[in-house]
Amino acid sequence: MKSAPAVLFDLDGTLADTAPDLADALNATLRAYGRDPLPFEAIRPVVSHGGIALVRLGFGLEPEDPGFEERRQHLLQHYRENLCRRTRLFPGMEAVLRKLGARRIPWGVVTNKPAWLTDPLLRQLPLPSPPACVVSGDSCPERKPHPMPLLHACDILGCAPGQTFYVGDAERDMQAGKAAGMTTVCALFGYFQPHDEPRRWPADHYIEHPEELLELLADPADETTSSPAAPAALGGNG
Questions:
Q1: pLDDT tens readout for residues 131-153
Q2: How far apart are CA 76 and CA 72, in angstroms?
Q3: Catalytic residue chosen out of the listed positions 10, 17, 24, 173
Q4: Does residue 10 have an active-site annotation?
Q5: Counting C-beta atoms within 10 Å of the first and last residue's C-beta, which end of the chain has fewer, N or C?
């Protein structure tokens, strides 16, 4: 294990379970345009990919098709007005954030979600402490899978990418983290489509539950436990 000066999280499908509110927004849009709602199980896997993917799923339209942008704007407006009705931190995530605080490890959010949705959502979530940085999809000229947003977060925090962990649930998260030189952690409790193969993604670690992240981070107290009288401790970790 290595100590982490910072941990960065993706938002949708990693830090918070936003799927119920986004599914409600899509189904409200479907009803508004005379379509039947979709079951939650069909919507949840698509949520991490944003409004474009949701409109594509619900209406079978592409961004260049007539009516696509109108439906996307309807969906986003409904979502904005009902941003945190059913959204929650993933079970165990609050305990993880509290433990990071106790260890004095700063944490932040790097998401492709635009700031006009990210900022009010984070304000409404029951976070034990505010994130040390928030980088949204429109904070930088590039978005994930480009590493720029992650490197920008490190600049804000004043930490080295090489000792920073990035936790996400999408292939672009792992690609961005790896390109930034970070330790990448794939959150298997997030949102995955049937064709996804997360075990083939450039992830250094996989976790089934948020609290498993703590096992990957060295507790600073551990560094004081080894005895200087033990010769094996001098070179055992290579």
A1: 999 999 999 999 999 999 999 99
A2: 6
A3: 10
A4: yes
A5: C
